[in-house]
Specification:
507 residues; mainly alpha; Serine Threonine Protein Phosphatase 5, Tetratricopeptide repeat; 26 helices
Amino acid sequence: MEDLIALVRIYKLLPANQRVRLTRNGAKNMKMVYRFIEDLIDGKITSDAQASMLYFNEGPTNPRFYSLRKRVVSKLLCWITNSENPYLKQDTYESASITSNLLSSQAGVLLDIGAFDMAHKINLSILRLAEKWQFTEIAERAARNICDYHAFHEVNPRKFLHFQQICRDLRETWKWEIQASDVFAGFMLAFHTNKEGRITLESMAQIYIQDLERILIHKNSVRVKQYLVRIQIISLIAGFKFSQALKLAIEMMQELEETTSLPLHLRNELLQSKMVCYLNTKQFEEGKRVAENLVTIRPVTSEIRLSGMEVNFMLSLHDGKFNEAMGIYLNTLQLNILKESEPIIQEKWLIYESYLFFLHQIGQITHTEADTFFKPFRFARFLNEVPMLNREKRGLNIAILIIEFLLCLVQGKTEWIFARHDALKKYSSRYLNQAENRRSYLFLRALLQIPVLAFNWKLINEKSKQFPDILQENPNLESSLSFGAEIIPYDVLWALVISYSSSRKAG
């Protein structure tokens, strides 16, 4: 019965429009076949003995059950192997990848149940498809199975030797690509875990590049070259050389798109690199266009849609289009996507709301619905609504501390600012004085100078003239890699604070 259950599982994985309708009026001798399959699909039958007693009131050794069982296996195999694969209609890398993996799974199950001829036909299809799109691992597995077929079932020495050579060639290619993959994985691990030393990562990258160049001597593989260029792009970003990284990413995308074999994950990685570069070179409109491709490249689930709205929201804030950001936020709330998301995601959007409230307070948001929307906003209540992020000592906790300071500033709560000065100074020294948090450290220290200078905005403005240049020397890398503490760029935020506060009376 295990073989029948396995075939039914494959059958259930077929697209709905490819599955045969079982409830039909057909030939009399097929009605029992359809009923048997339907009962298997519904899970009503779990053993041969159960099925034989149900249909014939006899044990499973009777010839009528044996005949029925044989026809059911034959019919399921026919439907599975001859069903039209909808992905084959699309001649793209993604469709070929889906198809080859689906066929590989089917062949594996067929081999397990002893349907060797059917599995052999599928493996031949896999090999042709995998060779065309350079799916080395899947092709090697299919070639190995074909070798076994010609060695054990259809004994054919000539074909066995032919496919054995194909298998060896694929293994050789795969070996070098695996080594290249390991080198790239090592580099990415260094990039994500060595945040404080990212500035030196560009020189460290030369070690990884040399390893890949040695692999290229043995195997001049397109995939190995891709790993090499990806390391170069990321190392340039780590070294704040955004224009060079952007140029390389654009060139790589153009080259790959011309070959029509650009994997989805690689396209997204390059788009992400481009967006980081656009953010840091303040080319926000270009960043938005990249973000649209990044988001719409996959089927739109609620999670992906929310991620897309967050990207557009943040890009609008970074571009200084605050009313546009307000509109995106309101649209997000109306779609009820946030209610379905994880609590920590909901907290993040509440922090975004607090920054919008600040912008509204200083007159930077004039959206028609803003007055009504922000009327019930209470910052004390907000702090109770973000317990997880408020307990952190880095990340979005920094954004909470900053917005708390700014709202007290615009609301004239100078006593709170004086009372919290020493605690915030200790916090910045203890938790923010690392390379990855350098911009947050500088901004919080600039804010702490406001009470030190007794809210004398003329003096504060003179003392902080070099602040934008200092920020420029420390690009917004961490926040642009994954939207973090810098919800509004600190240079923009500082300019807003100076402009608004200077127009009011000191103290």
